[in-house]
Amino acid sequence: METWEAIRTLRAVRRYQDRPIPADDLELIVDAGRRAPSSMNLQRWAFVVSTDRATLGVLGSLGPYTRHVRRAAAAIALLTPEGRDEEERGSIAFDLGQCMQNMLLAAWDRGIGGSHACPADPYLARELLGYPEGWRCDYLLALGYPARRPSREGRRKPLEEVLHRERW
């Protein structure tokens, strides 16, 4: 898939086929995230990939916006250091956005859809995934083959409505 085609057709996918994702594809998706730009190249992230149905079930119960994780073929927990202050936490969050977008595009290129989820219970997430103190899990990326192919045309504002040249 060409890059522009992937960007143009990418959609959030929360309904999945009951079909596993090959380990090689999951590794490539994580590698795409690892290769994202990061502030001062600090690469303040680590990843836990889960494919176990029981683990996905618990991850899908960590908050009101995580339910779709239960039906996913896999979930990637994006882990970051907690950050010392507001500025550092903002920088880490910006980097994570680029990381997740890389993962979503790499997945989409392979016919795999996904959507982020925000666990509301960080203590249970740490207990379940085993990451160390001083790290946090603010985002999960649920992945799976779409139950149906989303429409090619999303509901985006027209370019003319959001593009301004030189000045607003």
Describe this structure in words.
This protein has helices spanning 3-9, 23-34, 53-59, 86-109, 122-129, 159-162; strands spanning 46-50, 74-81, 113-117, 135-144. The model has no long low-confidence stretch (mean pLDDT 94). The termini are far apart. A four-stranded antiparallel β-sheet has the order 1-2-4-3, with helices on both faces. The protein has 168 residues and is α+β, with helices and mostly antiparallel strands. The chain is globular, with a radius of gyration of 17 Å.
Low-pLDDT stretches are none
What about the largest sheet? 4 strands, antiparallel
Widest sheet: strand ordering:
1-2-4-3
CATH topology: NADH Oxidase
Order of helices and strands, N to C? Answer: HHEHEHEHEH
Q: Determine the CATH superfamily.
A: NADH Oxidase
Shape call:
globular
Q: What is the SS-derived class?
A: alpha+beta
Short description:
The protein is α+β, with helices and mostly antiparallel strands and about 170 residues long.
Write the layout of secondary structure elements.
Blueprint: H1 3-9, H2 23-34, E1 46-50, H3 53-59, E2 74-81, H4 86-109, E3 113-117, H5 122-129, E4 135-144, H6 159-162
Antiparallel strand pairs: 1-2, 2-4, 3-4
Helix pairs in contact: 2-4
